[in-house]
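Sorry, explain these tokens?

___
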Amino acid sequence: MIITLNPLAGKVEVEQICQQLKNLELEAATLPHRPDISLMIYGVITENKLEIIRRLPKVVRTEKIQMPYHRASKQLHPEASVIQVGNVKVGGGNFAMIGGPCSIENSMQLEETAEYVKASGSNMLRGGAFKPRTSPYSFQGMGKQGLDLLHKVGKKLDMPIVSEVMSIDQIELFGDVDMFQVGARNMQNFDLLKELGKTNKPVLLKRGLSATIQEWLMSAEYIMSEGNENVILCERGIRTFETYTRNTADLSAIAAIKKLSHLPIVIDPSHAAGKRDMIESLALAAVAAGADGLIIETHPHPEEAISDGEQSLYPDQYAALTEKVWKLHQFMKTL
């Protein structure tokens, strides 16, 4: 429940109300992101307790929290969140253009990719060091060595870096990574989400293959309930009956998230399409729909890529797309 106080209520009066709520075996926390003076109340609120709360001095309104995801809801946080990832802001009109290879293969491949990604105007570098693969016989990534390469290249080019974490015991290896990525398969790995919530590092949370929007937001809530509010959602396509594309890009999720939540949303057209020639259309559509960023796979030589070569853009394709994305983003801000 949320209670709204008289705007003239002072600090001492707010503290007194919190103490009175504590006497009712309820906990209260201020909501700094709302324009009014509001408290969020935790605990079992009976009809008798509710009547007492409504009669407390300075209480002008009580609201039932409408959504099961509290911290991710716009009800508690009406304004769009802006998440700081290294030297890049995401959300609230700030756009993230994230590019890089699906898998880090070696230093030469990563450096070459990072250089043209940076030169194209992108502001964040992605690269997979730990890879969840459908087959146990597929390349599983370079592990810690890959993270070290990613950190070295990111620092050299002054670009924040993002990479996927797959398990709790890997978290400590990501000290130099600017943003954790939680993959679709781990969206409901609640133990992992809770541990990431105990850090203060941004988390890029991908939507599960068959997850509803509410399930996705509830996963974000697991992270935020532990104290880490630096969550960015990532729509990467959901599994439907369609087989022509790798997944089905749900661009309606952008409008839904903007209505329900204050969290930024980034789109991954690479995994949605699974086909190189479809990525530009999906990317531009996402920008026009109001996405706060894109994360796109690119490789210097996609035909030689160890993983996801068919959906990785060639360097010239990536540069051309990035130019269009920034132009469209600037145009959309004028509307």
